[in-house]
Amino acid sequence: MRTYLHLFCGLALAGACLAAGPVPGPSLDIPAGSEGPHATAVLAGGCFWGVEGVFERLRGVSNVVAGFSGGKASTAHYEIVSSGTTGHAESVKITYDPAQISYGRLLQVFFSVAHDPTELDRQGPDEGTQYRSAIFYSSEEQKRVAEAYIAQLDAAHIFGHRIVTQVAPLTGFYAAEAYHQHFLDRNPDNPYIATVDMPKIEALKREFPELLKKR
Questions:
Q1: Is 47 annotated as catalytic?
Q2: pLDDT tens-digit profile of 58-104?
Q3: Which residue among the candidates 39, 47, 66, 76 is catalytic per the annotation?
Q4: Do 117 and 159 form a contact (C-beta atoms < 8 A)?
Q5: Which of 85, 142, 168, 198 is the most buried (most CB within 10 A)?
């Protein structure tokens, strides 16, 4: 459950790139022609409000849905997931055009500005396995690219600590309640959004201006 009592401890980390320098793109990627015009990626990086807001702004992304992955359909409800006992992680399902943005580029944004991949079972002010860092792959190609990219970043010591992002098969994605969808854009003055998530949007604009949609 997101609480404002823990916001202060997250101020220094919110939206900040904790890498030693710019996060390089992946050496291995999925060829654009192999996925068709509409591909999907499911990623978990803490509170889905900010992660959704980041990916909604990318050129080539047609839809982003906030939801849950990793657990059963029967427990895919926010109040239950917030207990941290369901196996679910707050996730986003990204629909994109591989001809405009590749799976590897999505992962580069994920590791650069969307979250801190070195935090285990938490993200900034939020604690629990539901806030873990995870890549849920739907194909062997996605698995191969994700695992190779994590190994590439770790070998280059891009971050001060080892990446703890899980790479797990996608067994289901369940959309969150309607009030969670597009929460960042609908509630820019929310204290959590303003403190924790808007800095991620600013980092995205700074690090990847060439990937942004014209809004």
A1: yes
A2: 999 999 999 999 999 999 999 999 999 999 999 999 999 999 999 99
A3: 47
A4: yes
A5: 142
